[in-house]
Amino acid sequence: MSWAVVTGASSGIGEWLARGLARRGHSLWLVARSGDTLTRLAKELTDAHPDIEVRVRPCDLSDPTARAALVEELAAEPIGVLCANAGFPTCGALAENDPARELAEIQVNVVALHQLTLALLPGMVRRHAGRVLVTGSTAGLQPVPTAATYAATKAFANTFAESLHAELRGTGVSCTLLSPGPTRTNFYGAGGIPRLTEQRILAWLTPQRVAEAGLTALFRGRRTVTPGPVAKAQALVGRNTPRALLFPVLRGAFLPRLRKARSHGR
Ligand SMILES: NC(=O)c1ccc[n+]([C@@H]2O[C@H](COP(=O)([O-])OP(=O)(O)OC[C@H]3O[C@@H](n4cnc5c(N)ncnc54)[C@H](OP(=O)(O)O)[C@@H]3O)[C@@H](O)[C@H]2O)c1
């Protein structure tokens, strides 16, 4: 039986990663804080795919003690696939943001990804078999005023995943970066800007499409996948535009939203 771990499996991209892995015959560990939601998903998946087993493992990944217990538990299991997907943004002027939430964001988006990978990778390398999917973001390819911590955490995820991809060549283990652009999930609600998804200016992708693109790339051992034309354009511009040209555009794009949010109390 092949086991996969999905963090952030209670909604959005992670929920669809879990569905896609179940359809491909993988048994699952589902990780997030919302235990009831994970239990409902586990029932749906085992009803649809009676050959797989699904374990629900509620965990607040921002809590170092809870996270350490999870990491220890998973390190002892023969996990073949890790989808390090859980994450959330904070938005607004950094000086006005809650320092505790900024720290929690780093714990979830960076430290949990790092610890889980370090815990599961040695077993994968020993077995000469394993796949790691890291959910980074196009937001990590350039500075993002009003989302400084988020952009920095995703720069870590992006670089970490691509570095591992190169390092693991020839080991039987692969690491793939899933780099989504705008995807219609609870993500913007978590960041305090739920109404952004009502705007039609962006070509929103569904989490199902993003997750499927991620899994296809993962099982082909690809370095990276950036689903959809908007995300691809963002990636091209973010990676290649000189900062001197990019900054006025970024300020023009993000700072008016901040001023508007302030005047409307968000
Ligand atoms: N949506 C986008 O436009 C977009 C774009 C680029 C990258 N991404 C990335 O995609 C990934 C998935 O986000 P999504 O869009 O699917 O958003 P989502 O629907 O809000 O899902 C986020 C998931 O992360 C989990 N999570 C958040 N905080 C957690 C914590 N402290 N401990 C454990 N789990 C936690 C949530 O579960 P609980 O709340 O139940 O804990 C949920 O399952 C994230 O890494 C995000 O940065 C999203």
What's the multimeric state? single chain
- Can you tell me the residue ranges where pLDDT is under 50 for at least 5 consecutive residues? none
Please count the beta strands (DSSP E, at least 2 residues each): 7
Major sheet strand order: 3-2-1-4-5-6-7
Shape: globular
The portion of residues assigned to helices is 40-55%
How would you describe this structure to a colleague?
The chain is of the alpha/beta class and 266 residues long. It has helices at 12-23, 35-48, 64-75, 99-127, 148-167, 187-190, 207-219, 229-240, 243-263, and strands at 3-7, 27-32, 54-58, 79-84, 130-135, 173-178, 224-225. Helix 1 (12-23) runs parallel beside helix 2 (35-48), helix 1 (12-23) crosses helix 7 (207-219) and helix 3 packs parallel to helix 4 (99-127). The longest helix has 29 residues, at 99-127. It is globular. 43% of the residues are buried. The mean pLDDT is 93. Bound molecules: NADP nicotinamide-adenine-dinucleotide phosphate. NADP nicotinamide-adenine-dinucleotide phosphate (NAP) binds at residues 8-14, 32-34, 59-62, 85-88, 108, 135, 137, 180, 182-183, 185-187, 190, 207.
